[in-house]
Design brief:
Elements (H helix, E strand, L loop, with lengths): L6 E3 L2 E3 L2 E3 L3 E8 L6 E2 L5 E2 L4 E5 L1 E5 L8 E8 L8 E7 L6 E3 L5 E4 L10 E10 L10 E8 L13 E6 L7 E4 L17 E6 L4 E3 L5 E4 L11 E9 L9 E11 L7 E2 L3 E7 L7 E5 L1 E2 L10 E6 L6 E6 L4 E6 L10 E9 L14 E11 L6 E2 L3 E7 L7 E4 L2 E2 L8 E4 L10 E3 L5 E4 L10 E10 L6 E11 L14 E4 L4 E2 L2 E2 L12 E9 L7 E13 L5 E3 L13 H27 L73 H13 L50 H16 L1
Parallel strand pairs: 8-14, 15-21, 23-30, 32-39, 40-44
Antiparallel strand pairs: 1-9, 2-3, 4-7, 5-6, 9-12, 10-13, 11-12, 13-14, 16-19, 17-20, 18-19, 20-21, 22-25, 24-28, 26-29, 27-28, 29-30, 31-34, 33-37, 35-38, 36-37, 38-39, 41-42, 43-44, 44-45
């Protein structure tokens, strides 16, 4: 055959473990070997040995023998056994895990294999010439699979488990499903086939062997009897048979509550007591019906079903403690009734319909309440008292009597008193033993017609508890006031009318100029007992009226004042006059405060005071034309120039070290010195004045500034040097400089 040669896979048995080759049904090469077989007729049959192409080997995991495990043998048809062929192995684990004998083709595993780490290895085998390494056949790829053994126990990855199921659940109620996993190969053998069983928790719960679902196994499991159960579940591989590996997990199962219990009072009769001095709303006592259920299943409501105390007591519920609170609804009196009975019911507001037939979910009890005697304050026989007394009655006059008594069994005597804050002026007094009220002095109805006081009563020897009652005392009127005019208003009478205001006028007329006011004494009598009278003076004023008897004026002033001016107008005129006078006075005061200047200059500009002469003078040599001495200050000769704005009584002495200014002193320094003297002179007034000096400096580079001493003409003078004298001479420099410039331009 021209087909290429193939490897053969040989089967062998080692330690009772069979390693096999998977044969592929495609024959590449036939190698005929005669095998003898005995047939039915005794003849020998011959069949040829075939060479098969393989693709996978198997090796058992976790082998711990002393020698390497023989995985299989490779053999090529071209191998004649003379050692000229060399077998080569490559791929996953080649040379480290798997090694090959290059002469025989035997493959061994040198390390222990774990299927859970790697389940198979892909290798490549090839036959080459030993001397040339020339491939004799194409490479052939095969797989070595690690054969699983049961070396991993089942594991519950999500344990421990927590589950809840309602109490009183039916048998078979699903609680929870638990799941275990096995790392062994589920496709090979029973190493990963798990079976569940319950190790702890019977007989209350059971588990399905195949699914791991836990179910209830007993009926009527009561949470109030037992609430929690610890269940242990086992998972075993190998189908649960002996020799299989197992794992366990814990499941904590809690029974949840349902309303399966009615409330129950611990006692059939409860005894309570209340003092008669308690006020409505105060607590009398508590009782509780216990319900072992939880949350809303254990809520209890209370109510009074019947009893002679239904009108005097009420029941509320404390939501925190679930207790019934008995409170006083109305005041009780020990002397009237000393005990009461109530029938109280406790019930569940939420009833589970599944357990409604287990009811009734309610209970009743009897509450007996006894009334205790208390030391109560005395009680007045009336809620209030009203008395009358005549005014001006003498001190000690009886007003009335109040009465109070002790309602307690002791019936102690009572002491009375009037609190002073209700009778500040102490018009009344009370007898402390019998409660008789009397006056302390005469009362005046016209000053106060009613007196509202309080009377307190307290037990003698008691706990100082007192009761108060209102006493209203009316002062009765007697005829003790003579009649008089209600008001002192004047009566106005027109001077030309015969009668006004029921006053009969005897005259025919009146004259306001002669008399405008009349005083008429009138006697007034009343009809009281005894009758009283008084004389009052009626003032009658004569007024001016018009033709319709309308009063125009009742005063004399209108004849004097200008007609037609109202009072408001007169006030406005007077205010204007006052304002004008104030303005005038202010103006005069300001004028007096204003000071006149001490040296008066004429209004015209001094530059305009130029006198023009037609004749030409002889200069300084000419002493007849005018006296030049008049241009100088005659007081300047002695070196001291007095102030001209005032006439000082004493000459201000020169400062120490100050001497007369010489001719060589600079003009600027001279002016500064004089200004300083003027500023520091204490005898000078605080306003500006003019200093007049008759001195002109000599020896300066500028020379004399006076035109009287100049022998040159204006055209010969040069004033440019004024620009260098500083800011004090700037104005002068501008005047003369402007003039020179104008002359030059002309």
């Amino acid at each position: 055959s021209n087909l290429m040669n193939c490897f053969h896979c040989r089967l062998y048995n080692h330690n009772n473990l069979t390693t096999s080759c998977a044969l592929r049904g495609h024959r590449r090469h036939l190698s005929l070997h005669r095998h003898r077989e005995r047939g039915k007729e005794g003849q020998v049959l011959h069949r040829s040995k075939r060479g098969w192409v393989w693709n996978q080997f198997f090796v058992i995991e976790e082998y711990t023998g002393p020698d390497p495990v023989l995985v299989g043998r490779l053999h090529s048809d071209v191998d004649s056994g003379n050692g000229n062929i060399k077998y080569i192995l490559s791929g996953e684990g080649a040379g480290t895990i798997f090694v090959i004998d290059d002469k025989t083709g035997n493959i061994h595993a040198t390390k222990t294999l774990d299927r859970e780490e790697q389940a198979q290895y892909t290798l490549t085998a090839q036959a080459v010439a030993r001397d040339t390494n020339k491939p004799l056949e194409p490479p052939s790829e095969f797989i070595v699979k690690v054969q699983d053994i049961n070396d991993n126990p089942p594991e519950f990855l999500h344990g421990p488990y927590y589950a809840r199921v309602a109490e009183m659940s039916n048998v078979g109620t699903s609680v929870i499903k638990v799941t275990a996993t096995d790392a062994d190969d589920p496709t090979y053998g029973n190493s990963a086939r798990l079976v569940y069983s319950i190790l702890q928790g019977q007989p209350y719960f059971s588990v399905e062997p195949q699914t791991g679902i836990i179910r209830t196994a007993l009926p009527n499991m009561d949470r109030e009897a037992r609430q929690e159960y610890d269940v242990v579940i086992q998972a075993k591989d190998m189908g649960g048979h002996m020799g299989g590996l197992s794992g366990t997990t814990q499941v904590k199962i809690t029974l949840t509550d349902v309303n399966d219990n009615p409330p129950k009072f611990a006692q059939g009769v409860y005894a309570m007591a209340v003092s008669e001095d308690k006020v409505p709303g105060e607590e009398v006592g508590r009782l509780k019906a216990r319900d072992p259920d939880l949350a809303e299943n254990g809520l209890v409501d209370y109510r009074i079903l019947e009893g002679d105390g239904m009108n005097f007591f009420e029941i509320t519920k404390d939501s925190e403690t679930q207790e019934a609170v008995v409170k006083l609804k109305k005041p009780v009196d020990f002397e009237t009734k000393r005990s009461y009975t109530l029938k109280v019911e406790a019930s569940n507001p939420h009833v589970d319909p599944r357990f409604a037939t287990w009811g009734p979910y309610k209970d009743t009890t009897i509450v007996k309440i006894s009334v205790e005697d208390a030391d109560e304050p005395p009680t007045f026989m009336a809620p209030s008292y009203n008395f009358e007394v005549e005014e001006n009655a003498p001190a000690g006059t009886l007003v009335g009597r109040v009465h109070a008594k002790d309602t307690d069994i002791m019936n102690n005597p009572v002491r009375y008193m009037i609190p002073r804050y209700t009778d500040l002026e102490e018009f009344f007094t009370i007898n402390t033993e019998d409660g008789i009220i009397k006056t302390t002095r005469p009362l005046d109805r016209e000053a106060q017609s009613w007196h509202n006081i309080s009377v307190s009563a307290a037990e003698i020897g008691g706990h100082h508890q007192d009761a108060k009652v209102r006493v209203n005392i009316k002062v009765k009127d007697v005829n003790d006031n003579a009649p008089e005019f209600a008001t002192q208003n004047e009566v106005l009478v027109c001077e030309n009318v015969n009668s006004t205001a029921s006053i009969f006028v005897i005259r025919k007329g009146f004259s306001r100029l002669s008399q405008d006011v009349y005083h008429l004494p009138i006697e007034i009598n009343d009809n009281g007992v005894p009758p009283l009278s008084s004389t009052n003076t009626l003032i009658i004023r004569v007024c001016s009226c018009d033709s319709k008897d309308t009063i125009l004026s009742c005063n004399v002033e209108p004849f004097i004042l200008s007609a037609g001016l109202s009072t408001g107008a007169l006030i406005a005129i007077l205010a204007c006059i006052v304002i004008l006078l104030a303005i005038v006075v202010l103006f005069v005061a300001l004028r007096r405060q204003k000071k006149e200047p001490l040296i008066v200059f004429e209004e015209e500009d001094i530059r305009e005071n130029i006198i023009t002469y037609d004749d030409e003078g002889g200069g300084e040599e000419d002493t007849e034309a005018f006296d030049i001495a008049t241009l100088q200050n005659p007081d300047g000769a002695n070196g001291f120039l007095p102030r001209k704005d005032i006439k000082p009584e004493l000459q201000y002495p020169m400062r120490p070290g100050l001497r007369p200014i010489g001719n060589s002193v600079d003009v600027d320094d001279f002016i500064k010195t004089r200004i300083s003297d003027a500023d520091n002179d204490p005898t000078a007034p605080p306003y500006d004045s003019i200093q007049i000096y008759g001195y002109e400096g000599r020896g300066s580079i500028a020379g004399s500034l006076s035109s009287l001493e100049s022998v040159t003409t204006d055209s010969d003078l040069d004033y440019d040097y004024l620009q260098s004298w500083g800011p004090r001479f700037k104005k002068l420099a501008d005047l003369y400089g402007t003039k020179d410039s104008a002359d030059d331009n002309s």
